[in-house]
Amino acid sequence: MANISRRILVETRNLSREPPPGISATPDENNCRYFHVIMAGPNGSPYEDKLGRICLDILKDQWSPALQIRTVLLSIQALLGSPNPDDPLANDVANMWKNNETEAILKAKEWTQIYAIGE
After folding, report:
1. Which pLDDT does position 87 carry in this prediction?
2. Helices 69-81, 2-17: inter-axial angle, 10-degree rounding
3. N or C end of the chain, less CB within 10 A?
4. CA–CA dist 15, 44 (Å, integer)
5. Which residues contact 48 (CB under 8 A, 6 or more apart)?
6. Which of 29-43, 51-65, 70-84 has the lowest mean pLDDT?
């Protein structure tokens, strides 16, 4: 248990020294395993400003203790620029992406404005 906390503290210190581009991650005051993350989506993507829910293999069945917090954050950011509709969080959204990518991108921009930015 102490090793996990020490590792999180070391990774957190490294994140503050060399933050990934477009990502701010700060640990919660009450739980060092919980991070408050603000992430800029890739330019030109529907997620240019902020992020909502995602589905990413390294956050579920491909998790490894060898992954660093920085690596996970960069993987999430990369997913925003190249979504994978074959491994969706929401099947209806994936179907829209497969059948009408233009409409899906417009919907993603709309939802980003409403849910991630709060406009």
Report:
1. 81
2. 60
3. N
4. 26
5. 40, 41, 42, 112
6. 51-65
